[in-house]
Structures are given as C-alpha cells and as structure tokens.
Automatic annotation (TrEMBL):
Residues 253-280 form the SHOCT domain. It comes from Streptomyces actuosus. Transmembrane segments: none annotated. It comes from the Bacteria. This is DUF4429 domain-containing protein. Residues 186-205 are annotated as: Disordered. Residues 12-106, 137-228 form the DUF4429 domain. InterPro entries: DUF4429, SHOCT.
Length: 283
C-alpha cells in the first residue's frame, strides 16, 4: 500500500507486509508512545482489525495482535489503559470513510489467527533502565541488575545485597502496572524449586522491584519488562510452572490491610473489590 493515515498522537504507514506506526512526541502524547518512538508491526502479527466510534467526534482504528506475537503486549498482560494502547489510532470522525478503506485493506491481508509460536514484533532495544521505589533496575541485553536504594528497600533486600540475573537463568517476567495497587516487576527463575522458595511479597523478594508514585512509570518499566521477556524467550523454551498456593493467614492479613487503605480513601471501591477477588483466587 505505502499510504499514510495520520491520527491523534500517531501515524500509520501501510506497507505490503507490515504497518509502520510512528508516534508523536507532543506534550499531549501518552509518554509510553513517546518512549516507543516507532514500531513496525508485521501483518502476520495481527489477527483482527476493527473500526468503531470513539469519543467526542472521533473514530478508532484498532488492530488486535495475536497472542504471543508482541513482547510489549505480553508483558502488559491486559493492564494498559485504553488511551495507552499502541494499536489504537484515533482519528477525526470526518475521516471515517478513509479509515474504513484502510481497515478493509488490512483485513484482506491478514493471515493465520491464533497464538503465535514466537514474537513477531521487535522488542524495545537494550540497554533499558528505570528507577523503582526500592532500587534501580538496569538491563544490558543479557543481564538484569537490581541496585537497592537505602531509602526504600526492605531489610530483606539489603541483607540479600544487590542482585544480578542472567536471562539464561530466567523463565519470565511479571509486570504489575504502577497505576494499579501494588505495582512491581518480578523476575521468574527457570529453577522451579528456587521459584517456590521466593517470598510472596515483592517488597521482600530480591528478584523484584516495587513501584510507587513517580517510581517505575509505565513508559519506563513496561518497555524494560518487554525487552527482558524477549531476551528470555530467545534463550529457548521454559518449563511450565504451577503457582504455589498461598498461606490463608497471609491472604487474610493482606485483605485486612487492603480494607484499611479502602477505608482511608487511598483505594477506590473498584480497586478494593478487584484486588480482594485476586487475593481470594490465590487460596
């Protein structure tokens, strides 16, 4: 195709086998988009394209990636807010006819649907780094390093000392958005015995860093998680891990603490109910 469709915060350039998405760097552009810069998405990585009415006189062209095709979306695990979805192109409503034309063109070029066997979209490039609440995380392409902060790290992490994790010893990455309750980034070891022995709480786990207000923002911590996840997958298949059941007393204590935050107005009703359900599901 070779044509360009420009919307708010991004422009899509349509090519024969891919879509090149270029994100703006304006002050109103989501910071995640600015951090991504541009992304080439092979059509083989997509499973659907939709066009729907948006807010305030806009339409939204939305490409849905196949599960397992994009390391960024795999790391995000459905936690991105709608406005930060890198596969949404918001356009003025008067461009609906043009957008429908490109949506039809893309649909006609899509191939196999369903989970992808490997990542098809390039991950964010290393080196990556960001400042978490309890330390600084860095990744050079082969090794993840955590250097603890004396003002935020727990005594358990200070006792363990600064940490280095070669990606060859990891099985995955767990990212919990800093915009939600108890955000963190946790590394999962390939050794299942070692994983089961890890503390349940991220603030006590030397293989995790926790987020706070202004620490580990999405535009820094999510590309980091995606880059690490892609490097881990490049090392080969990882063993399946069954999550250990949690101590009921620990779950009850966390729900009690969550209730205190809710009563103090620090957690909304929706956040309280969602997190409570998540904790109960761990029993």
């Amino acid at each position: 195709m070779g044509d360009v469709l420009a919307g708010f915060h991004a422009a899509w350039e349509f090519e024969s086998d891919s879509v090149l998405i270029r994100y703006e760097r304006g002050i109103r552009t989501p910071r995640l988009f600015q951090a991504l810069g541009e992304r080439r998405v092979p059509l083989a990585a997509l499973e659907a394209v939709t066009l729907a009415a948006g807010r305030r006189g806009t339409v939204v062209l939305h490409a849905r990636p196949r599960p397992g095709a994009d390391p960024l979306m795999e790391a995000a695990d459905g936690q991105l807010k709608e406005g930060c979805d890198p596969y949404r192109l918001v356009l003025p409503a008067e461009r609906e006819t043009l957008a429908e034309y490109y949506a039809d063109e893309l649909r006609g070029r899509l191939g196999e649907a369903g989970p992808a066997e490997r990542f098809l979209v390039d991950p964010p490039e290393a080196p990556q780094s960001f400042k978490a609440y309890d330390g600084k995380a860095s990744f050079d392409g082969t090794t993840v390093r955590f250097r603890w902060s004396w003002t935020g790290a727990s005594s358990a992490k200070w006792k363990a000392g600064d940490q280095s994790f070669p990606v060859t010893g990891l099985s995955g990455v767990e990212w919990r958005s800093p915009e939600a309750f108890e955000g963190h980034l946790r590394l999962r070891p390939r050794d299942t015995t070692e994983q089961s022995a890890r503390p349940a709480q991220p603030d006590q786990d030397p293989a995790a860093v926790v987020f706070g207000l202004g620490y580990g923002p999405v535009h820094e911590s999510l590309p980091f998680a995606a880059a690490v996840l892609a490097a881990v997958r490049a090392c080969g298949p990882v063993p399946a891990v069954t999550a250990p059941r949690r101590d009921p007393a620990e779950i009850a204590e966390r729900i009690r603490h969550l209730g205190e935050l809710h009563r103090a107005g620090l957690v909304t009703d929706e956040e309280f109910l969602a997190k409570k359900a998540e904790l109960l599901a761990e029993l």
